[in-house]
Amino acid sequence: MARILIPTPLRQFADKKDTVEANGATVGEVLADLTTQYPNLRKQLYSDEGKLRSFVNVYLNDDDIRYLNKDATPVAAADTLSIVPSIAGGRKGI
Amino acid sequence: MISIERTPWREMVNHAQATYPNECCGAMIGTIDGENKNVVHAVALDNAHEGSQAARYVLRPEDLLRADREARERKMDLIGIYHSHPDCDAYFSETDLKNSCPWYSFVVLSIQQGRFHHANSWLPNAEQTHADKEELQWPES
Fold it and tell me: Among A39, A48, A55, A56, which lies 20 to 30 A Cα-Cα from A7?
């Protein structure tokens, strides 16, 4: 089982846990198990179209899965997944 | 409501004034009790925007991941993000909104002519279409 670190604001959707465990051989499978265990997390992480929200990044240990094999990235039992938002901004318009 | 203690507040203002006329950014760590958030530590982070930083900031996700780990080590929570608006009001701009995330408080510090002027905190929605103003308290407010 992989470990998933839950950001503070999402813990209310994961029985107030800061870390949860989920099954799966790939990042996609682990996230699917996570949102099966905690269905209310799904809306926070995925859009209505079923895609990860644009501001959601997933890290496998210290690596962004976008630079690995995305959802198909293999996950071992000792691995830790982190959910990290993309944040930027500025005073002027885009 | 979000309250910022004296030490992190001083660090945030100093950071914003030191980076003027560019924008700064950082993370806020503290405790949450229901609707009340209390910021105990400020973590200055790099503005990773490539190009002029006078009106833009970008947080590296890996820096935010490190801030989250620091919060966990302190047995605290990552509460929010701060950034500065040089020579501009502390509103939540279209750029702020379109690059936001609904999980955190976003404190904006207005720096006018290099000095702190005022600040606001914002809570954007998941669709990045709207941000509510959040009550913000700092030591001199």
Answer: A48
* B137/B141 Cα distance (integer angstroms): 6
Provide the shortest C-alpha distance from residue A59 to chain B (in Å). 9
Nearest to B86 by CA among B63, B60, B53, B46: B53
Provide the token pair at A75. Answer: 């996950």
Give the contacts of B69 (CB within 8 A, at least 6 positions apart): none
Nearest by CB: B94 against A44, A88, A93: A93
Assessment of whether the complete model's pTM goes beyond 0.90:
yes
Q: Give residue-wise pLDDT tens across range B77-115.
A: 999 999 999 999 999 999 999 999 999 999 999 999 999
Q: Tell me how many residue pairs between chain A and chain B have CB atoms under 8 A apart.
A: 101
B62 touches chain A (CB under 8 A): yes
Q: What residues contact A40, with CB distance under 8 A and at least 6 apart?
A: A13
Q: pLDDT band for position A94 (50/70/90)?
A: very low
